[in-house]
Amino acid sequence: MMRFKDLLCNNRMCYSVESSLKTTLMSFIAIVYLFSSNNPHYKWVAVTLIGWCLMQFAELILWSTDPRNGCTDLNKVITMTLIPFVLVLQPLGSLLGSFYVIPWSKSSDFRKTFSIIFAILIIAIVGFYHYYEPYKICTTVTPGGHLYWATQIYKELDTIHYKIIYCIWALLIILPLLLFWDKSILLILALFLIPLFGFSYGLFNTDSRASIWCYYTSYTSIIASISLFLKQMGIYDIVNGTVKNLITPLSKGGAN
Question: Which of 48, 77, 170, 196 is found 20 to 30 A from 220 (Cα to Cα)?
Fold first, then answer.
């Protein structure tokens, strides 16, 4: 019987210009829709999705350079500029988006201090892992057909060290939402479903975990759009649901 992974690839849902183009357009339309709501919490989600989904745009450009047949100058430029920029936005997008709800001027000392330290930490981590003694400066294609835009040696992907970093990075990506989201946690849990699947699938079933995580996470934009549509139609307002934030003491980001 054909495995799920093989079914996906045989239908060109992954590993191609076409798949990256589809997920890029889908995410772009969803993000514009969320911004158009003029709801500060959905604008927060929109900025979060920019950080989560922009990698598909980067991969669209990288696939267009035909990385299977060599390394072009455009490939090198995207790998060493846009890729680290997107990586930084993955955790910082949800932090920056939170300022739609609670502006900097109304933030608590804790939130201001956290934001500064967190931003410096994320930039330092990405800068170190991407630019310190790079093994390569060009995105390549793995044996499984995924893009590999990291600058480390490919064989390091299966080391315990890399898997630990992968898990820590996943936590950093969602940390601002867990700390500062001040409405029902239901929407956040819904948004976490597909990224969690992508994280698990990438950790145990692929040879390029980060690329697969970004691919599946793009579909989170559909969940966010459906949530906003249900609110606008008066069917269900998940943002103001009854289940409160899991981290109540830290979710209050307002002024002291």
Answer: 77
